[in-house]
């Protein structure tokens, strides 16, 4: 690798840029996790976390990647042989349902084209046809990070209610929490899955389950094997600010700082900022003459934009040129989109000029890689940012 000056542009859709304030908060002496200082921190964290999830209920914090919180959501609420309804929105939905199968669940996986979100009409049909309530949970990835498509969770909830179906609603918000409007309680979600390294502006290493009353009740009877992921001993210990194992104390310091930053900006402003950067990015993509992968304007993602290249061009080559020449990382196409798309992350700790630098790098990289584009694309983005 050649020598690089200045800051690396980390524009993958997670992990995201970690603010200096958060890095400094993490760089504190590690404390005794059974000493007197931890409970105060932990209880404060729960008070600051709940509004971000839009819940008044408990939030479980795991020292784990988001994948761990996926597993926790399933093993705490379900039993071997239970049926789960899931939607093929992209790579992450596919991985979550594969995990469900490995855990001994039966998955009804509604096929999709990786350009649309979970379909509320299909959800209603499946649930209305399930007269004996074999389906115990509906799994939705709120923001499908492999495609840049945001599913309409309230419409899925409405479909479940219209079918009068008692299944639990489990939602993955790993790349939407603190970037795209989300409301655990108001939307009637039973378990929300989240992670630290995307909208929450932290390094990888923490993940979360927000747990509703119905999910908590289900966890008393669920029989999938669970030990480390079991909510019950954690929630018991959390009541007085402790954990049944060693928590990731330094990441918790960082979490506190990141939550304070979100409070300072205010969640509505955070969501508006993400939506605006996403709109400017789409304007550039279209101005270049390229296609945004997301095919439904109601489902545009605020966190990232996946850019579809013309058939004869290799998106991985474009990413490589951009990394080599401009020291910027972009997201690769995943699964069936490998080589066909690249993904621009515009979430987390980010501002107008960081987006401007990102889009300049993408435009220069597309030209270097020989992709035919209209260079007036950038001006389209400035129009949106300047409006
Ligand atoms: C990143 C991501 C995951 C996986 O999280 P890890 O922290 O890599 O385990 C799952 N779902 C979505 C939607 C994601 O964006």
Characterize the structure shown.
The protein has helices at residues 20-26, 37-53, 66-75, 91-102, 120-129, 153-162, 213-219, 231-238, 249-265, 267-288, 315-326, 352-368, 377-386, and strands at residues 9-11, 59-62, 83-87, 106-110, 135-141, 143-144, 149-150, 168-172, 191-195, 207-211, 291-292, 304-308, 328-332, 341-345. With 387 residues, the protein is an alpha/beta fold. It has two domains: 9-16 and 267-386, Aspartate Aminotransferase, domain 1 (Alpha-Beta Complex); 20-264, Type I PLP-dependent aspartate aminotransferase-like (Major domain) (Aspartate Aminotransferase, domain 2), CATH 3.40.640. It contains 13 helices and 14 strands. A seven-stranded mixed beta sheet has the order 2-10-9-8-5-3-4, sandwiched between helices. A five-stranded mixed beta sheet has the order 1-13-14-12-11, sandwiched between helices. The protein is globular, with a radius of gyration of 21 Å. The model has no long low-confidence stretch (mean pLDDT 97). The longest helix has 22 residues, at 267-288. The site of pyridoxal-5'-phosphate has 12 residues, from helix 3.
């Amino acid at each position: 690798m050649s020598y690089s000056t200045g800051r690396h542009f980390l524009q993958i859709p997670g992990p995201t840029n970690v603010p200096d304030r958060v890095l400094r908060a993490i760089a504190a002496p590690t404390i005794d996790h059974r000493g007197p200082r931890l409970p105060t921190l932990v209880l404060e964290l729960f008070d600051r976390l709940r509004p971000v999830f839009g819940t008044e209920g408990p939030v479980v914090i795991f020292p784990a990647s988001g994948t761990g919180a996926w597993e926790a959501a399933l093993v705490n609420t379900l039993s071997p042989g239970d049926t789960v309804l899931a939607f093929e929105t992209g790579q992450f939905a596919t991985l979550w349902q594969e995990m469900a199968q490995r855990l001994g669940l039966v998955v009804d996986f509604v096929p999709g084209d990786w350009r649309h979100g979970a379909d509320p009409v299909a959800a209603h049909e499946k649930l209305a046809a399930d007269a004996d309530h074999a389906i115990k949970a509906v799994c939705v990835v709120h923001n499908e990070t492999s495609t840049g498509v945001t599913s309409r969770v309230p419409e899925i909830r409405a479909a479940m209610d219209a079918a009068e179906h008692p299944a639990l609603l489990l939602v993955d918000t790993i790349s939407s929490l603190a970037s795209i409007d989300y409301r655990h309680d108001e939307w009637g979600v039973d378990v929300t899955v989240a992670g630290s390294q995307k909208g929450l502006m932290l390094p990888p290493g923490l993940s979360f389950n927000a747990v509703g009353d119905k999910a908590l009740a289900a966890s008393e009877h669920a029989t999938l094997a669970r030990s480390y992921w079991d909510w019950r001993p954690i929630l018991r210990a959390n009541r007085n600010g402790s954990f049944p194992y060693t928590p990731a104390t330094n990441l918790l310091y960082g979490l506190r700082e990141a939550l304070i930053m979100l409070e300072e900006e205010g969640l509505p402003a955070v969501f508006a900022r993400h939506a605006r950067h996403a709109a400017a990015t789409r304007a550039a993509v279209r101005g270049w003459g390229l296609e945004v992968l997301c095919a439904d304007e109601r489902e545009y993602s605020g966190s990232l934009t996946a850019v579809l290249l013309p058939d004869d061009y290799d998106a991985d080559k474009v990413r490589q040129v951009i990394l080599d020449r401009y020291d910027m990382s972009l997201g690769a196409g995943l699964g069936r989109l490998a080589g066909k798309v690249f993904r621009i992350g515009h979430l987390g700790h980010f501002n107008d000029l960081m987006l401007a630098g990102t889009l300049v790098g993408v435009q220069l990289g597309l030209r270097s890689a020989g992709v035919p584009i209209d260079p007036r694309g950038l001006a389209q983005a400035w129009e949106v940012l300047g409006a």
